[in-house]
């Protein structure tokens, strides 16, 4: 059976309209639910940077996670110079949780917004900062929890979009993330060096020292991406820490005197 | 079936809902005409998603859903689809269904969405789906097409779940994320890294095909 061109075109048009309408309808209905899911996922990742919280997360329901988050995390946003800002370049109010790190990553560093999440629970404190960079295949990102001394990593949570399962994708595993716990951002001379993941695996702890972590066999390029991401973002936040944390600590000391 | 008006009325006995002929639509793809091991279709996703059982199950359910509904829709439209653009029509229908699955996962199972998103998208190009539409749904009635889709979907599912079972238990020492070896007291079970990489899937799949063909006596011509 051979149909006329007009039939083919009209059939295709109707099909496109019906299917397109169906899809946009579904996306309208599911949109808010998806937004909630993304929001919950971000909060889980932020909390997950704290090892003790991460262990508890698996057992928690959605509501418990959101409650816990609002109890222990307070947040603010800084600009590149380290000043706390409440509005973005267009004058709209900014919320740390809603700052899209990926979109900011595409802007020049000086124009980016830098959210900071302060963790405070049961007497323990930490600064959780977001990081973002490029892995081997696609984006990688994560959150790093720094102890109040701003030199020691308490924990990290990494995620990725397309790293190789079993190789680079291992950055999401507890096994790899635990390697960062307790590592130092400064070397013995007091210089900022970030924490570097070495090439090759099963390096003895004694050979690594406080500024390096064991690598992932077969995933050196992903590790390089993680290294660059940590160095960049931990570096960017030094302005914020200088102005808002270290400075304050000093003034507090003077007060005490 | 009111949609059958276009067909010439054939005077014949009403077929049972699950007649012998129809049962074959479902059972054939399970073994004798399995999409993966005999037709060797859908290998890409069989290798990619089978490192763990849980995402594999979600993938299997998604493929079953897409297969059944694309078969149904194409079969309902089969007399209206212009022959010259039928492949594009099939693709449009499959792509719409796959996007639906992806959107629903994103809303209700975000963790699964993160692991599977890329592969769910690839169902669009999964040869099993297109193959069934071309080979079956275009020339058969809706109900038969649904059964055919279900059969192929189940045939695909049991293979990838079996592969995932062996890959997860040897590669990570777990079944559905549950550490079985620790549970029976083998704390330091040495996991096999090969099983986690796609090569592991090839090996397991090879064994399944070997066992199956030695039983069914199937040979390539």
UniProtKB/TrEMBL annotation, chain A:
<keyword id="KW-0520">NAD</keyword>
<keyword id="KW-0739">Sodium transport</keyword>
<keyword id="KW-0915">Sodium</keyword>
<keyword id="KW-0813">Transport</keyword>
<feature type="transmembrane region" description="Helical">
    <location>
        <begin position="6"/>
        <end position="26"/>
    </location>
</feature>
<feature type="modified residue" description="FMN phosphoryl threonine">
    <location>
        <position position="220"/>
    </location>
</feature>
<feature type="domain" description="FMN-binding">
    <location>
        <begin position="135"/>
        <end position="237"/>
    </location>
</feature>
<protein>
    <recommendedName>
        <fullName>Na(+)-translocating NADH-quinone reductase subunit C</fullName>
        <ecNumber>7.2.1.1</ecNumber>
    </recommendedName>
</protein>
<keyword id="KW-0472">Membrane</keyword>
<dbReference type="Pfam" id="PF04205">
    <property type="entry name" value="FMN_bind"/>
</dbReference>
<keyword id="KW-0812">Transmembrane</keyword>
<keyword id="KW-1003">Cell membrane</keyword>
<keyword id="KW-0406">Ion transport</keyword>
<dbReference type="InterPro" id="IPR010204">
    <property type="entry name" value="NqrC"/>
</dbReference>
<keyword id="KW-1278">Translocase</keyword>
<keyword id="KW-0597">Phosphoprotein</keyword>
<keyword id="KW-0997">Cell inner membrane</keyword>
<comment type="subunit">
    <text>Composed of six subunits; NqrA, NqrB, NqrC, NqrD, NqrE and NqrF.</text>
</comment>
<keyword id="KW-0288">FMN</keyword>
<keyword id="KW-1133">Transmembrane helix</keyword>
<dbReference type="InterPro" id="IPR007329">
    <property type="entry name" value="FMN-bd"/>
</dbReference>
<comment type="function">
    <text>NQR complex catalyzes the reduction of ubiquinone-1 to ubiquinol by two successive reactions, coupled with the transport of Na(+) ions from the cytoplasm to the periplasm. NqrA to NqrE are probably involved in the second step, the conversion of ubisemiquinone to ubiquinol.</text>
</comment>
Automatic annotation (TrEMBL), chain B:
<keyword id="KW-0520">NAD</keyword>
<dbReference type="InterPro" id="IPR011292">
    <property type="entry name" value="NqrD"/>
</dbReference>
<keyword id="KW-1133">Transmembrane helix</keyword>
<keyword id="KW-1003">Cell membrane</keyword>
<keyword id="KW-0406">Ion transport</keyword>
<feature type="transmembrane region" description="Helical">
    <location>
        <begin position="88"/>
        <end position="110"/>
    </location>
</feature>
<keyword id="KW-0812">Transmembrane</keyword>
<feature type="transmembrane region" description="Helical">
    <location>
        <begin position="190"/>
        <end position="211"/>
    </location>
</feature>
<keyword id="KW-0997">Cell inner membrane</keyword>
<comment type="similarity">
    <text>Belongs to the NqrDE/RnfAE family.</text>
</comment>
<comment type="subunit">
    <text>Composed of six subunits; NqrA, NqrB, NqrC, NqrD, NqrE and NqrF.</text>
</comment>
<keyword id="KW-0739">Sodium transport</keyword>
<dbReference type="Pfam" id="PF02508">
    <property type="entry name" value="Rnf-Nqr"/>
</dbReference>
<keyword id="KW-0813">Transport</keyword>
<keyword id="KW-1278">Translocase</keyword>
<keyword id="KW-0915">Sodium</keyword>
<keyword id="KW-0830">Ubiquinone</keyword>
<comment type="function">
    <text>NQR complex catalyzes the reduction of ubiquinone-1 to ubiquinol by two successive reactions, coupled with the transport of Na(+) ions from the cytoplasm to the periplasm. NqrA to NqrE are probably involved in the second step, the conversion of ubisemiquinone to ubiquinol.</text>
</comment>
<feature type="transmembrane region" description="Helical">
    <location>
        <begin position="116"/>
        <end position="138"/>
    </location>
</feature>
<feature type="transmembrane region" description="Helical">
    <location>
        <begin position="57"/>
        <end position="76"/>
    </location>
</feature>
<keyword id="KW-0472">Membrane</keyword>
<dbReference type="InterPro" id="IPR003667">
    <property type="entry name" value="NqrDE/RnfAE"/>
</dbReference>
């Amino acid at each position: 059976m051979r149909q006329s061109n007009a039939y083919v075109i009209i059939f295709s048009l109707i099909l496109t309209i019906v299917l397109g309408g169906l899809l946009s309808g579904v996306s309208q209905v599911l949109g808010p639910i998806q937004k909630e899911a993304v929001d919950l996922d971000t909060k889980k990742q932020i909390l997950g940077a704290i090892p003790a919280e991460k262990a508890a997360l698996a057992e928690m329901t959605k509501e418990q996670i959101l409650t816990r988050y609002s109890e222990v995390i307070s947040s603010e946003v800084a600009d590149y110079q380290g000043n706390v800002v409440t509005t973005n370049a267009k004058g709209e109010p900014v919320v740390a949780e809603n700052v899209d790190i990926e979109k900011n990553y595409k802007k020049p560093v000086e124009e980016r917004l830098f959210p900071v999440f302060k963790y405070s629970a049961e007497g323990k404190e930490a600064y959780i900062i977001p990081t973002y960079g490029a892995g081997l295949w696609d984006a990688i990102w994560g959150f790093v929890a720094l102890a109040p001394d701003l030199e020691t990593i308490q924990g990290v949570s990494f995620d990725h979009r397309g790293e190789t399962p079993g190789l680079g994708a291992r950055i999401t595993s507890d096994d790899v993330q635990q390697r960062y716990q307790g590592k130092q951002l400064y070397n013995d001379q007091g210089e900022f060096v970030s924490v570097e993941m070495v090439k090759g695996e099963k390096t003895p702890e004694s050979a690594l020292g406080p500024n390096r972590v064991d690598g992932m066999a077969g995933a050196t390029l992903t590790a390089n991406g993680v290294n660059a991401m940590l160095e960049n973002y931990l570096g960017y936040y030094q302005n914020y820490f200088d102005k808002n944390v270290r400075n304050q600590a000093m003034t507090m000391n003077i007060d005490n005197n | 079936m009111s949609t059958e008006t276009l067909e010439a009325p054939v005077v014949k006995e009403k077929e049972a809902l699950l007649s012998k002929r129809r049962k074959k639509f479902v059972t054939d793809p399970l073994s004798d005409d399995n999409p993966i091991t005999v037709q060797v279709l859908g290998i890409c996703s069989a290798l990619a998603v089978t490192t763990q059982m849980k995402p594999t199950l979600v993938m299997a359910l998604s493929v079953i859903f897409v297969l059944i509904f694309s078969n149904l829709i194409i079969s309902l439209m089969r007399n209206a689809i212009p022959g010259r653009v039928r492949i594009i029509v099939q693709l449009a229908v499959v792509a719409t269904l796959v996007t639906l699955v992806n959107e629903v996962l994103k809303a209700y199972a975000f963790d699964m969405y993160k692991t599977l998103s890329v592969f769910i998208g690839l169902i669009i190009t999964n040869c099993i789906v297109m193959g069934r539409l071309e080979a079956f749904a275009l020339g058969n009635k809706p109900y038969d097409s649904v059964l055919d889709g279900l059969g192929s979907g189940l045939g695909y599912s049991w293979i990838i779940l079996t592969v995932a079972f062996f890959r997860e238990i040897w590669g990570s020492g777990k079944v559905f994320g549950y550490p079985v070896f620790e549970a029976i007291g083998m704390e330091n079970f040495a996991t096999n890294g090969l099983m986690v990489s796609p090569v592991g899937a090839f090996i397991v799949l090879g064994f399944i095909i070997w066992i199956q063909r030695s039983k069914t006596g199937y040979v390539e011509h």
